[in-house]
Specification:
The complex is a heterodimer of chains A (506) and B (226). With 506 residues, chain A is of the alpha/beta class. Chain A has helices at 58-66, 105-115, 120-133, 149-161, 179-194, 206-212, 237-250, 277-295, 298-317, 325-344, 346-349, 356-362, 367-396, 405-431, 436-447, 449-462, 466-505; strands at residues 18-29, 32-43, 47-51, 73-77, 90-93, 167-171, 198-202, 215-220, 223-229. In chain A, helix 10 packs antiparallel against helix 13, helix 13 (367-396) packs across helix 14 and helix 16 (449-462) packs antiparallel against helix 17 (466-505). Helices cover 77% and strands 2% of the residues of chain B. Chain B has helices at 2-8, 12-29, 43-68, 73-104, 113-135, 139-164, 183-225, and strands at residues 174-175, 178-179. Chain B has a two-stranded antiparallel sheet. In chain B, helix 3 runs antiparallel to helix 4 (73-104) and helix 3 packs across helix 6. In chain B, 40% of the residues are buried. Classes of the chains: A alpha/beta (506), B mainly alpha (226). The A-B interface holds A 28-33, 36, 69, 72, 221-223, 425, 429, 432-434, 439, 442-443, 445-447, 449-450, 453-454, 457, 478-479, 482, 485-486, 489-490, 493, 497, 500-501, 503-504, 506 and B 68, 116, 120, 123-124, 126-127, 130-131, 134, 136-141, 143-144, 146-148, 150-152, 154-155, 158-159, 161-163, 165-166, 218, 221-222, 225-226.
Amino acid sequence: MSGQLPAPEQPAELAAGLRLQLAGVRVRLGKSLALGGVDLEVAAGETVALFGPNGAGKTTLLRVAAGVLAPQAGSVRWPTAGGGDPRAAIGYVGHRTFFSDALSAHENLVFFGRMYGLEAAAAASRVRELLRAEGLILFADDPVGGFSRGMQQRLAICRALMHQPGLLLLDEPWSGLDADAGTRLSDRLRAHRAAGGSALLCSHDFEGALAVADRYVLLAGGRVREVGAAAPFRGRAQAFAERYREVVRAGTRVTVPVVTPQKSTPMAVSGRAGPSWGRACLTVTGRDLLLELRGRENLAAMGVFGLLVAVTFGFAFDPVGQDLRPIFAGVLLVALLFAGLLGMGRSFARELTNDALSGMAAAPCAPSAIFYGKCLANAAFLVAAEVVLVPIFFMLLLVPFPAHPAAFLGALALASLGLVAVATLTAAIAAHTRAGEVLQPLLALPLLSPVLIGAVRMAGGTVAGAGLAAARVASGAPWVGLLAAFDLAFLALPALLFDFVLEVSA
Amino acid sequence: MTLLRWSARLPGAVVYGALLVGLFFAFIYAPPEAYMGQVYRIMYFHISSAWTCLVAFTVVFVSSLLYLLGKGDHWDLLAHCAGEVGLLFTTITLLSGSIWGRAVWLVWWTWEPLLTATLILWFLYAGYLLIRSAAQGDPARMRLSAVWAVLSYVDVPIIVLAVAMMRGLHPQTIEGFNINLDPRMTLSLFINYAAVMLLALYLLGRRVQLAKTAETVAALKERFRF
């Protein structure tokens, strides 16, 4: 069958050095084979257009090329990216925008600039420059959620250009753009190519993509069907469409011409080094705190839920008629545990709206930095809720504040630390499963049982009454070690395991 | 893995025969217990199931770890199947313990350290199977369930320690290397444990075989898709 089609023309010359090299890449998504052994190379100063029918594997291929999705077989290399994190040299526009709807265009872009290692002032200045060039400067302080599809796409292109990457990976970049914005993007791609930058873009717009590309690649059924020079089809989209249909219908598999790289050259438009681990962590924390400031979702949920529990227990147990001190620690910690799970449960689920986690996974920072950044933000929310709720529980349930506040607060701190670690991790796991919001407490509560047992035993004695307090505080001492061991285990383990969790969102 | 291949070929008659031998030792050979009388005989299935579920969960942990370390998809498949077998034997442990407790302590449930720890174990691995069943063959989600399996196993000793620090009434049949039982009871216990382990291995082998068949069918469908 493959012999029936004439061989495509090949570009006469490719620029020196390879920016991207995929060899035998195989990816299974769910039960489908998304990529069945793809070989593809993008040279420095080259633009490659990827075409194929729906479900051909174009988006998956770009995700692999962006380093956010690991192939099950084969290899992906960025030969000229240097010794650092290759993602620092990649600008990626995915299917979704990766933005938080509640944050402004400026805040979203600065966040991603910081995640790519830009200093705060440099990021802000670059944002203004890009927004001005894209005609969006007037909307810089507006929430992205209010933007039209086309404006969001323009903003996504700005995001990919923030750190001046050497390799652009663009998934349907012209999608939703008006004529002016489309032309501007084509001009940008030509300028990027002229400066030595490379690009791999997938599109259904044959004319637009062939106009900027050096080579085209036809992908169907997860396999490369044809690779050829774009020049012969430039301005002849109809002729290309016919060839495309023939190749896809014939289901042929061509031998992909191998690009023989000349000596690898440094990128003309180089990527930057990624942010330090601590900076990436704090950047994620800062973004979550900013999101909370805009939406006030977590604190309100935790605070109101905790208050309702206090009132409900007040109705149920009649604090005037009976002494609640023996059960107070248990009641308080169970309330805080449920309030915490409720508030922190959404910390990852809300990132799925615009696939922001994929955007973070594409940034050159350790996955653990994202986890601990989220943990820090969640810890801040929990402490804020506790500052309000704990005194309210003492007041409403008519229990005097403990005579040994240090032991009580120590138990609360150790329990909160364990709760934050487990709730953040289970929120990340549950966000990627069916009925995640229901599943999260089912996962977290059994895991948190040592925290509850230990913290109630520790804190219980401190509010048990003057006669018993000293003895019970002493008996709570062995639980400190257990709680500390738990906190340590569940704060340390995600450093090793979180990249597997983040991979699901990619 | 060799053991698993061998167990998949194990004839059911051998397993059922072993269980019958176990029943003989539990109900006829072993003497009645001085205080509990005949009801104590549930111990042979209760303890055997408890030990078997711990072995199964250890298999889940080791296999999940090997899968996360990139040693191959078959480790995840083994972990999933061992998780199902482990949960089955944990359920048997809890139910048999509850029936035994009703006869001896006059309550269906008590917050005994071992009971509580076993119940939490059941929840943890039920969670694992929930996440694993949602994976639907997606490798990234399979890795997510493997992460959960590792976390759950790490939590188990902490839970056991936590509940053990609470006081308990559960009889300590085994303390260190000493078994506080009549020698005939000890022999019956180990014969029953061997029979239950053989049953678990048989179920695991068959379950793995079934999962592999399902994978082969899915792969064939994929071949026709492209």
